[in-house]
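anyone else get weird line breaks when pasting these?? whatever heres mine. first is seq + tokens for prot A
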Amino acid sequence: MQGLKLSPIDPQGWFRLAVVDSLLKTPEQKIINALRLSFYAGRVEPELLISRLSFAYNYYNQFDKDLQLIWEKQVLVAWALQTKQLITFVALHPEAKQLVEKAFIYSPDDWKKLSNDLEIYLKKNSSLQKK
């Protein structure tokens, strides 16, 4: 933690701190603050994008409106950079679909494409599981 305070522009470090704090059952606000700093320090971090999006989803309802908006914007970044991983995330977290859809409020065509791709993914994977 002290090292992060000395060099705060480390999105991976703040994310790792949030994960460790979560494992240690630290109060949620401390975890959320570390996530906030991770997002602020690097909104476009391809190697961190989906894992941070997925982890932060667990705290979405405790976020303030600004942090919820940042999370939603991360969905759009994931759509642009890691489409397949985003589709997999939504498939594995069906309860997140409504929040992901909210992120596409100004991009209805992209939402239709994601929904279609998600449907194809789910059909493909359900048929693989039946074999």
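and prot B, same format (seq, then tokens)
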Amino acid sequence: METTENYVMPRIGEKAPSFTAVTTQGTINFPEDYAGKWSILFSHPADFTPVCTSEFMTFASMAEEFKALNCQLVGLSVDGLYSHIAWLRTIKEKIEYKGMKNVEVKFPLIEDISMNVAKKYGMIQSESTTKAVRAVFFVDPTGIIRAIIYYPLSLGRNFDELKRVLVALQTADAFGVATPADWRPGDDVIVPTAGSCGTAQSRMEGKEEGVTCYDWFFCTKKLNKEKVEKTLGAKL
């Protein structure tokens, strides 16, 4: 009798589900191999498809930018290892996109023919039972999922936004702040709501240096780009 294993989709704030997998860069144990680093685990529907090709070329071209932010990229599709290798070779030898050519993908691409990893991470959805949607998981250095973004099969991802999310998460952690809508390094950040009446009153009266309050629940402060870059150790 055939049995199926039920998976609950991982959630923000939970430990990233562990797995061992064969990749184009050898066998990995995720997220344990990347302890102390951020990682972005992302899925694509299939090798030798145009949207996925444009995405892999973009990620590979930005790989050093993510590395500078102490972040490892890890890709996945439900194709086999030999398909992965042939596809990545074709990208390097034949494909040109937006001025990018001779692009070598050096980050690991997971073989997941069994769909075990894709199912464990909720990457197989109603849009297709045989292909992974475009999922993105941001995992912090302690192995905790910090952000999740899903895209349908037909929609290529915005890679500037993926980097912005990573930078914003690291900035929030480093400075104990929150980042407002459309935040970019150098923009004002949100100061957490005051924990005591005295602090709130001081803020409202403009006594807390560098903090501007528009009401008790909405206070901002300056955080210059250079300070963020110095703290994160990367040029932004």
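btw re prot B: The first helix runs from residue 50 to 61. The chain has a mean pLDDT of 89.
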